[in-house]
Design brief:
This protein is α/β, with parallel strands linked by helices. It is built from 8 helices and 8 strands; from the N terminus they run αββααβαβαβααβαββ. It comes from Malaciobacter halophilus.
Length: about 230
């Protein structure tokens, strides 16, 4: 089936395209595609404009036209958002892969069915999985009851031995050392043995109207059961 029949190329589900980055997909020169909409409302989320948008600024065919000009110049495409898996990514990824790019997917892990489809077809190469919060704080921080869906995706990625990382966004008013250690314990229990990436909250407008916390994490109290990589 042609890409035109699988997908409405005029659909505006892309909020923005970051044309070049060396940071978002290690060892790969990449662009970032920011998809509109999300099924969570995380308190610390600073992409509220993207999440709440009913229509994006770019049609899918504009993405493909851009990528055609980047063949041989970029290594990979990062699919982010919002939550990219709210959209029909299969034909999009199929087309991107046919152009020779690797694909990294940023996701909250609530659409295991789509993850399985993309992995089974070889349409994605790497996943960054957001571990939003331990179970007892998950609903408060994300405003959803989707912890078990996230855990199911985590277990699936570990079971299939797919190349992925987990990452946590840290705002000290929301998560403390005990919460981080609980997340580490869950990961260890599920069989995860890669690094856990902890990225700091960015003090820009967000859903929770949060500002920079006056609290500080004591890194000496963080478990050493996993390798921790602190970002920004």
């Amino acid at each position: 089936m042609s890409i035109n029949k699988e997908l409405n190329l005029s659909k505006k589900i892309i909020y923005d395209i970051t044309r070049f980055t060396t940071l978002d997909y290690k060892d790969n020169l990449s662009c970032i595609v920011w998809f509109i909409s999300c099924n969570m409302r995380c308190q610390y989320c600073y992409n509220s404009d993207i999440v709440l948008s009913k229509e994006g600024n770019y049609e899918i065919k504009e993405l493909f036209s851009f990528l055609e000009k980047r063949v041989g110049l970029l290594d990979a495409v990062v699919l982010s958002g919002g939550e990219a898996t709210m959209h029909n990514l299969e034909p999009i990824c199929k087309q991107i892969k046919s152009m020779g790019f690797k694909i990294k997917l940023d996701t909250n892990g609530t659409n295991q069915k789509l993850l399985k489809t993309l992995i089974d077809n070889g349409y994605i190469d790497y996943i960054a999985l957001d571990f939003k919060a331990p179970k007892n704080k998950f609903e408060d921080i994300t405003k959803t009851k989707q912890y078990e869906k996230f855990i199911a995706s985590l277990e699936y990625l570990i079971k299939t031995n797919f190349d992925f990382e987990t990452r946590v966004t840290l705002h000290e008013d929301l998560l403390d050392e005990n919460d981080i250690n609980e997340i580490i314990d869950v990961l260890i229990d599920k069989g995860y043995n890669n690094s856990l990436y902890i990225q700091n909250f960015l003090d820009v407008p967000n859903f929770g109207n949060l500002s920079e916390s006056k609290k500080y994490i004591n890194k000496d109290l963080i478990s050493d059961k996993l390798n921790i990589v602190w970002r920004n």
